[in-house]
Known about the structure:
The protein has about 450 residues and is of the alpha/beta class.
Amino acid sequence: MFPWSYLTLFLLIAAQVNKAQRCAEFTDLNLGHAFLGTSVKVRLLLYTRENSTCATLLSHSNLSACPQLNLSRPTTFIIHGYRPTGSPPVWVHDLTDLVLARKDVNVIVVDWNHGAANVNYLKVVENTKKAGANITAFIEKMQEHGGSPSSIHMIGVSLGAHISGFVGANLNGSIGRISALDPAGPQFTGTGPEDRLDPTDAEFVDVLHTDMDALGYREPLGHIDFYANGGADQPGCPKTIFSGTSYFKCDHQRSVGLYLGSLNHTCASRAFPCSSNTDFLDGKCLSCDQFGAAGCPVFGYDVTQWKSILLKLGQTKTFFTTNAESPYCITGYQVDVMIWNMEPRQGYITIKLHYNGTEAVANIDHKSSEFKKNKETRLFAQFDKDVEQVEKVSVKFSTGKPFQPKYKLRILRIRLTHLELQATALCRYDVTLEENSDVTFRPIPCEESNF
């Protein structure tokens, strides 16, 4: 029996070694490669539900050599961006797994680390069109074997978003969908459509902006453009350079985190069409009538449910707000306040919703709101979580001026309307708020006859 145990161990080790030899891995480079510079070399790593943990390296010229590539299935390409240190993207396996969990597709991870790893960013930008040409040639091979460009979804991150656009343009916009996650801004801002992503590059182009004031692109690029938290500074990201490299990349990388959240069903972020983030936060853009019964689009993987109407609308610019961590989604309420103070009041409102020990908080503090007697002031309250049912509500008023006399806000009526459940508006009548003090009450269903 003793020799057999050694044989078993040997066979197990041999199996693991054989598997390691068969599984293609993403190219792992280092800072040395980046300093020396790398030229473009594109490797295509195939994952399917049958080999979800073990990639197959695809041949650019001989598709029949890889029977795992089933062209009767849709295909999703995942394309990374700039890799200044040469390391593989930490998110690529999570994104692959979640896409495969959602749909039976071919997932092709485009590994262009040779070409993306270079301290000279300008050289990497030059390499994007070369990478795009390489991927285009591969898709043309897919077409020769019966594959359809309309069944292709390209998910491009940063520079990968523009590479997706180049591929789409090379194929005359026949690609089914491009999802662009914070498309790169430097060297692309101000260029023409032929040198960047644009809506004609695919049948449907959806774009997320999270760092438009630094590494990302500011202007709309797709049929629908989502601006998370205004599109620039993301909650929870460092505000000073003393935080190290995270200060530079956190906002940019948040785009991937938000997209992963849309894939794993943790929550849904409703996005509202608006001309600016200021108007959005002021509650001026809460109507979703133009989208019919489906309501305003939900950010992320499932936005194709709104594809037909978005194509008719042309370019739609939308805004949504998130939490600092997963689950990122917030819960929106329209809040209407009418006071009976003789003099106008200026200040900020904090609202808490209570249910069964759970507390959801919304700080309406992006600017000071103005309240006037017998005039309804509309606010947009964005709560950090949803509550199953509202048992109690706490409201606090503050002027934000600690060294001035404290004021009271005499509320004639406050009405809270859940934006997803508009038939369940809750009200409270005749309540006085002492500045900086929470007032808690049980709301009742609103009755217009009371006014």
